[in-house]
DUF3784 domain-containing protein (Priestia veravalensis), 92 residues
Amino acid sequence: MDLNLIIFGILFLVLGYLIGVKKQTWLLSGFNEKRVKNKKKLAHLVGGTLVFLSILLIIGGIIGWLTPEYIMIFVVAVMLGLIFYVNIMLVE
């Protein structure tokens, strides 16, 4: 059991809830409301991705089926993909 992954998973879960459900987009670094085409879609997409990654981190931390390095590489890759997608499709 890896406590660090579980802690990061809980943090991502809280952020995913605040951003995706409560639409607290001010938590996003560099968020400029004037440049975003669809604020609701942005909040839903980022929040959903964070919740997905949080579940992966928590399960990976409890079960320990992969090493934390592989899980974090996947998390970083997904986050980078999300950043590129948001900047290309949702920002003017």
